[in-house]
Amino acid sequence: MSEPYPDPAAWYATLPSVFVSACMLLTDPEDRVLLVKPNYRPGWNFPGGIVEEGEAPHDGAMREVVEELGVSVKAGELLVVHWTPPAKDRPRGLINFMFDGGVLEDPARIRLQAEELDEVAFLPWDTAAPLLPAHIAPRLAAGRLARENQSPVYLPGDLPGAGG
Known about the structure:
Layout: H1 8-13, E1 18-27, E2 33-38, E3 48-50, H2 57-69, E4 78-84, E5 93-103, E6 117-123, H3 125-128, H4 138-149, E7 153-155
Parallel strand pairs: 1-5, 4-7
Antiparallel strand pairs: 1-3, 2-6, 4-5
């Protein structure tokens, strides 16, 4: 006689979990990348944030762009999936999904969310890279490569500077 199937709730409770975030790679007509400067942590970042419970990553990225920049941008192709292990105060791994937000033709439409952001800037790619925290920086080159090759990139968390 076989054992009864486990209770689904009990079984799911035993599985590991991760935090999920999503962001967008946006550029302007001069091919400069858009970064935002949060006021609640050091360094710059891509527009985006934590995906809410039950929310699809592409929907989370679009919601965050509206909240942070006041512009509605459709999430295009998936560019990067970036997994990072637990680190410091974050007890679980994090999976970030970067979507192509395309070219923002009219940057004057941006309305910065002052509650969370101090600045927004379109920057040359090589100027943007050193402004990103070490654990986020690999997404910049990966996002650019994915756009050029029209093929998503997977970034494992064991890359130099990718932890945390």
